[in-house]
Amino acid sequence: MKLLFVGPPGAGKGTQAARVAASLGIPHISTGDMFRHHVSNGTELGLKVDSIMKSGEYVPDEVTVAMLRERIAEPDAQTGFILDGFPRTTGQVAALDGLIGTDGLDAVIVLDVDEDALVERLLARGRADDTEETIRNRFEVYREQTAPLLDVYDRRGVVGHVDGMGDVEEVTGRILTALSDGDATTPPEVGS
Ligand code: ADP
C-alpha cells in the first residue's frame, strides 16, 4: 500500500504517519526527517541542505527527488510506504508520477483539523515562536501550498479526509478504518 499523508502544521501528521506505518508494516518516509538526519550526521547532502532548511526554504526539487528515489528503491519499501512531507510542489508530484506512475498512490490521507482548536493547543505548548499570528500564518502557507497538490489527487479520486482532532489513538483508528473500508481509496464513479 502506497500512501501520502497531508495535514497542517501541529496536527500530528508525523506521529500518525509513524503509527499507521508500524501498524501496516511499511516504512514511514519523511523527507524532513531524512534531511535532518543528514544534517546531524554531517553528510555531504546534510552540508548542502543545512542553511536552506534553517532559512525555511525548500530544498531544490532535484535534490529532494534524488533522495526520495533512492529511498523508495530500498528493499523495505517494495511492499509500500507512507510518504510524509513529499510531494510538496507540483514539480515533485510530477516526479513521483514518473517514479510510481499516476496511479501509484492508493490513498492520500488528509488530516482535517479545527483550526481554532489547534491554535489553542499550540499556544498551550508555550513555545516562543508560537504566537497566534505565526501559527495562523503557517496555516495560511499550508493551505496555499497544499491546495494545488490536493487538486491533482482529488481529480484522481484518491483523497480521503479523516478527522484529525481527538486522542492520538483515536485518530490512528479512524485512519486505519478509512483505509480498510476503502473510504479513502475508492475511485469516484466514472462520470460523477
Ligand atoms: P515541517 O517543519 O514543516 O514539518 P519538515 O520536517 O517536513 O517540515 O521539513 C523540514 C524542512 O526540510 C523543510 O522546511 C524543507 O527545507 C526541507 N524539506 C522537507 N521535505 C521537503 C520537500 N518535499 N521538498 C523540499 N524541501 C523539503
Notable characteristics:
192 residues; alpha/beta; 5-stranded parallel β-sheet; globular; binds adenosine-5'-diphosphate
Structural notes for this entry:
- This protein has a 5-stranded parallel sheet with strand order 2-3-1-4-5, with helices on both faces.
- 55% of the residues lie in helices and 12% in strands.
- It has 8 helices and 5 strands.
- α4 packs parallel to α5 (90-100).
- The two termini are 25 Å apart.
- It is of the alpha/beta class.
- The chain has helices at 13-24, 31-40, 44-54, 61-72, 90-100, 115-125, 132-155, 168-181; strands at residues 2-6, 28-30, 81-84, 107-112, 159-163.
- The structure holds adenosine-5'-diphosphate.
- Provide the gyration radius in Å: 17 Å
Overall SS class: alpha/beta
Would you report the number of β strands?
5
Strand content: 5-15%
- Order of adjacent strands in the largest pleated sheet: 2-3-1-4-5
How many separate helices? Answer: 8
Q: Could you tell me how far the N terminus lies from the C terminus, measured between alpha carbons in angstroms?
A: 25 Å
Average of per-residue pLDDT values: 93
Helix content: 40-55%
Query: What small molecules does this complex bind?
Result: adenosine-5'-diphosphate
Unreliable stretches: none
SSE pattern, N- to C-terminal: EHEHHHEHEHHEH
Largest sheet: 5 strands, parallel
Which descriptor suits the 3D outline? globular
